Amino acid sequence: MAIMKIFKNTRFRSIIMSTIIAWAIIILCFICxxxxxxxxxxxxxxxxxxxxxxxxxxxxxxxKFYKVKDGRLLRxxxxxxxxxxxxxxxxxxxxxxFRSRYTTLDVxxxxxxxxxxxxxxxDKELFIGKMYHFISLPEDYAGKTLTFNMRVGENNAFQNLxxxxxxxxPDIEGEFLHKNMTIIFTGMFMIVFGVAFLCITIFYFTSVPxxxxxxxxxxxxxxxxxxxxxxxxVLSPFIYTEHETFVEYFTxxxxxxxxxxxxxxxxxxxxxxLFFTAAALSCAVTLIQYLLHFAFNIHLRAxxxxxxxxxxxxxxxxxxxxxxxLRSRDIGPSNSTQMLGxxxxxxxxxxxxxxYMLENIHLKYPEMLSILIITFGCLMFAFCxxxxxxxxxxxxxxxxxxxxxxxxxxxxxxxxxxxNRARSDKELLDLDKTDTDYCIISIDLNGLKxxxxxxxxxxxxxxxxxxxxxxTSTFEDQGFCARIGGDEFLVIINDSEGxxxxxxxxxxxxxxxxxxxLYPEYHRSVxxxxxxxxxxxxxxxxxxxxxxxxxxxxxxxRRMHEELGIRQRL
Length: 570
Prior knowledge:
This protein has 17 helices and 14 strands. By secondary structure, it is an alpha+beta fold. It has three domains: about 1-30 and about 180-400, Rhopdopsin 7-helix transmembrane proteins (Up-down Bundle), CATH 1.20.1070; about 40-175, Sandwich (Jelly Rolls); about 420-565, Alpha-Beta Plaits (2-Layer Sandwich). The radius of gyration is 39 Å and the shape is elongated.
């Protein structure tokens, strides 16, 4: 029973479905996107000769490069790595895939320069980031000496290097895409989802202020997607740009301010002074990091510890609000769903930071575990926003239906479904705001009291409904029709110039005569009177025009009484 109660809760259903979809997408990537190389791929990790600032070291393993260098690498250090390429099978378009880390890269095959990167940035003291490089080799590369010349552009540029991979270009690119498919899919999805969501929220932003949280969340999704793609350097096969790492740090430093902003939108913030102080400090740190980079050429990577401190502080604050929500339960289903997405992403980011620290102290960890955790956190945030949006749309639709129902009660006649007196009064007021000539027709049913007394009120109600159908069929395309009292009706023809009102009234009366012939139980007839705007003075109101039409209707009713013997209404 408890489980069934949980599943009936909209919030828990949204949470469960978001989790299932996020994991389903990740698993689907592994199942569907398989890869098998046509030729062997060679991993060039061991047997390198390294010259660091002129000091030679033999038999270096690149994945354990930290064992070669005592202390940290500093800007200006030079590193030369050489290795004889092995005898391999004949590849189609042989290439080497190598990831440089904050260094320039000049690649030689024997004495021939075959690739260069970053020298112009280094000479101008600009930021040199991380990059994957697909380095093409000539067909006769086997047995030749491969040399990597690197100049370090950042202090503590790296401690280990990913070993180069040698193989045919289709196999190398296919393996790269397969290895990073989860990151590529998640990053692309977050950007596309965020852009689409942002377009929707901007369209409704001015008319629905509450939707601002969705707008900030969609911008955050775009930011997360861009950071994820650039952090893992998976743009290289698609967009080879030296600014990839700059985008990584630029978007990374925005993550914590975005978290504060979204948290403020969805939380009933207590201790506002503490919250705003923490948020202001986080934003100030981000602005200072940008200022140092652009104004003083202190590169974004140099201030990374400042971001880590803000990240931990922000996570503690989010954890505090999460615990508070669980205890007090004073947050609605919509906001709690958003909060779940935000705290899930924050937890995954903290794990990601922990894995980064482990790498810096040379402790092994499953790299795929880190990828799975961060992609799950990103997808959970996106799907929680989607679930919350669907909940918001559902609630908005229900509120709209309720409003429509209340409007119907307020402005519609319950018996005929025609507009009532309140709606007619509003329509008359709107006429005073126009300059066009209009006509108001006052209509009164004859003999309604007689029908009620002799045949009963159900027959009287049928008389009213029958006439309302005749009224709408005659005037609906011409103007506004309403029932303003028991047997009183009103027609407003907004643009009456060139229209034969008498002919329209005659058509209505002819329809009533046809009904009398078909159903002769009692006689149906009406008294009418109409007046035009141009009959009044310049400052005459629509209400005064209506009174003029009403007087003419009563005058006609008296004539009908005198000529036809119809009893006047008291």
